[in-house]
Design brief:
Order of helices and strands: EHEHEEHHHHH
Low-confidence stretches: none
Shape: globular
Oligomer: single chain
CATH class of the largest domain: Mainly Alpha
Number of domains: 2
Structural class: alpha+beta
């Protein structure tokens, strides 16, 4: 049995789920609150962070470790390009979203709206949210620019760059904070990602206590 310990508010967890679905892997999900890790989580990984991938007694913890492991052991469907330059561009965009987008957008919006609410019971700081929304628009302009010039973010083919970007953006979209109509090319790109079979379960996600935006699961927005 393949088990993924995850949480729907975690973009790294969503990335792992989409990647496994693209590779047509069967897996079971177990939810773990990232703001309140259980003692068992610390037995699996010192960080206590999701996601954690478990298969045949092997425990793989961490965003990059899981991504690289899955790409290495499941070779029938490859999500990193064969061309070295394109692989580099794909990894650059993965890092952009996992590091820059996470720091500038995710932490200022999702940590404020979700983690603080369930972790400490405190309301979000409107000043921090404003910074996150301003940063979000900067990143959407970049996605829009990329999507205008090529079929997918890293080139003409779907790749881990698209999975990573969509994993992050889908969490923000669940909360209803993305002004898609202001970014037509980004919206068209995201509609293609939403239509993929691997994204189907992501659109069914439910963050307990928070309803998704009305358009969230609508493939036509």
């Amino acid at each position: 049995m393949v088990l993924l310990i995850h949480h729907p508010v975690s973009p790294a967890s969503r990335k792992a789920r989409i990647l496994m679905a693209e590779k047509r892997m069967l897996f079971v999900l177990k939810e773990e609150e990232p703001w309140n890790p259980s003692p068992d989580m610390y037995k699996l990984t010192p960080s206590g962070e999701v996601p954690v991938f478990i298969s045949d007694g092997n425990v793989i913890a961490g965003n990059y470790a899981i991504t690289e492991y899955l790409e290495e052991v499941s070779r029938d469907v490859r999500l990193l390009p064969a061309d070295a330059r394109q692989r580099a561009e794909t990894r650059r965009l993965m890092e952009w979203f996992d590091e820059k987008f996470y720091k500038e957008v995710y932490r200022n919006i999702v940590l404020e709206k979700v983690h603080k609410r369930f972790g400490s019971g405190n309301p979000p700081d409107s000043r921090v949210l404003k910074v996150g929304i301003n940063n979000l628009n900067f990143h959407l302009e970049y996605v829009d620019w990329l999507a205008e010039r090529q079929n997918y973010l890293a080139g003409e083919d779907f790749s881990l760059a698209d999975i990573t970007a969509a994993a992050h953006l889908s969490v923000i979209d669940y909360l209803g904070d993305i002004p898609w109509d202001s970014y037509k090319n980004a919206k068209l790109w995201y509609s293609k990602i939403k239509s993929r079979p691997s994204f189907k379960d992501i659109l069914r996600d439910n963050i307990k206590g928070i309803l998704p935006a009305k358009h969230y699961a609508n493939l036509d927005f």
